[in-house]
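Can you give me the bound-state structure? Components:
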Amino acid sequence: MALSPKLIIQIPWDATLSHNFEFTYTGNQVYANRLIIKNNITNVTVCDTKTTSFQMYAPIISNLLSNGITYNAQLSVFDINDVESPLSQTIIFQCLSTPIVTFTNLVANQIIRNSNYNFTFSYTQANGELLNEYQIFLYDSNKNQLSTTGILYANASSSLGGTLSGFSDNTQYYARITGSTVNAVSIDSGYVIFSVDYIAPENWSKLVLENTDDGMIKISSNVTLITGTVSPTPAIYVNDTKIDLTANGSKVYFDKDFNIANIVGFKILGQKFIPYSTIAEFSNGVNKIEVKYMLGTFTVGENQQAYFVLNAYNSYACSRICSTPMAVPSDSQEICISVKRVSNIFDLSVTLE
Amino acid sequence: MFFLNYNSALGYTHSADITPTDIEDITYVSVSNQICDELFISKDANSFNQSLPITWDSNTILDAKFEDSLIAGNVSLTLAQLDNIRIKYREVNSYDWVIFSDIPIKVASDLIFTRFNRFCSANTTYEFSISTMLNGVEGSIMTNTIESNFDEFYIMEKDSGYHGINIEITPTRNQTSSIITPLDGKYPVVIYNTEMNYDSLNVKGMFIQLVNNEFDKVGAWKYRDSMKDFLLDKKSKIIKYSDGRCFLVAITDNVVEDSSQYNAEGYTLMDFVATEVGNYADTQMLYDAGLVSINTDYYY
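Here's the bound-state model for the whole set.
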């Protein structure tokens, strides 16, 4: 048996797992093989095992080697007469513990409330093996692949992750990360199931569609973008749900991106109104409607009462209406002022919330 | 009567009534001198019988909730948070979206738009979506579904199209192969050197415009003349039929008119050959064909 077998170069694997060293051999039928593994630094032999097998691989048991160590290996084979072949050429390999890849912003059964999601993940490897490339896959509920981020390369300057889009509402998906390290160790996060729920059904839509019967679909947008301005800045919010405009001269105004052709009505929900001041104003640059908060004593000897006044000015007249007087509210009492106009007549009502 | 510019109760029966006051085109609204929880403005008087918060509907003009922002529209965005609106569509129960149009947003009024999609098949329910984008990243998405239906036949480009009736489409599925005859064998060897697998269509029919749901017989010849230029403009087109068939094609032969029945109210048929050049539901192919408007900075 003058021929020597050839050991196939080994991708690093986790030494806590069993492993097979595959080889090729073109001589007589193989009846056994002998695998010799040495520490590549000290050249101390850690394995010299003869295995009786027709198979073209030499198995090694788990935990025989240690992760993070570089080894070299040679192999010989035996024929039916137990004649040993020359040793193969030496290959050098590493054992590395299994990399751990975990989504950092996705847990099983999480609900994603959007049609797209930027999946981020962490990568750790105990022996300092660096991540080279990865892909994030999207699967349907039957684990059929739907889309992928494509191959992304890891680098130190950017976080690990990628965006997948096109999720359907009320649908279940799986996400999975696969990839490889710089030494070709495979990584796999496994399948992580999640659900998508991003649009609550509503009768009125921001996206209006119409089949025009002449072969076209008419697409109209009802998206409205209005942003107010606060003066002075910055805005002072109360519990992130209200805005404090009680400072002298403080107000929020809206003066662009909308037009009220003919005002029908408005509602204001507020509290801590400043007496005798204007709490709301609507103007077309010439004429205006204003709402004031007032205090007054309507019966001799009784306490003061609160009421709201609406003045609607135009070029020739002022319409003034008042709300029914009520007990002066505390600063924490919310009041809803509702104004509606029917046939140019304003109606003002006030309710305690 | 008016006194000091106020309606006063000094005379007439109805002088104490509230003065009708008409103030139009309000463009400025402010709130002040309070801790304000919400400001809601509507065109619907009935909505004022409801308690706040009131769901935004087609009558809502402005709704400021002051939840840590001054946003008063129906999306939780400011103009600084989006620079593009993307329209996509797909058949219901399919996964892949077709990007139909990217609309750059510079001012808030850009968000009020109308577009026409001419590429939807008949007898098919589609899901359309508009999604906000900033720097190429899609944000919130709004979707709606519609069933696409139409009669007879249309041939469409991005901004124009023509209507046909009594159409006969004869599709031929094409492939290419070579037959090699070996010297020493009884049977030839067939070699398929390409992956070609496409339809060519022979289309014949009457092309006439629908005006107010009636066929415009008088202007039919002008319509056909215009259509000839359309067919020969060397641009890719979508052919779609009322049974649901749809093709992305290029016109690859001459356009022929058959006026043998012309004495019957000018009845003239047109005949042309179209060759399938791509998948009508593939964004990249539609883009390459010049049929969709995509911001290439945002399309990979």
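A couple of observations. The mean pLDDT of chain A is 88. Chain A has three domains: 6-94, 100-196, 261-352.
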